Amino acid sequence: MREIEVxxxxxxxxxxxxxxxVRRGYVPSEEELEEIADITFExxxxxxxxxxxxxxxxx
Length: 59
What we know:
The chain is an all-alpha fold.
């Protein structure tokens, strides 16, 4: 199996969840979306789907 590089952006995750929740009749707050995005990111790390690496903005 080959390795590919994937970049996960929590803001992109939040936007995706916002669109999907609104489509289903829910209107989440910005704070709720940030929490959902963070939880999703942590889930992907816990399941070893992604590895967290610091980016250049963290320095």
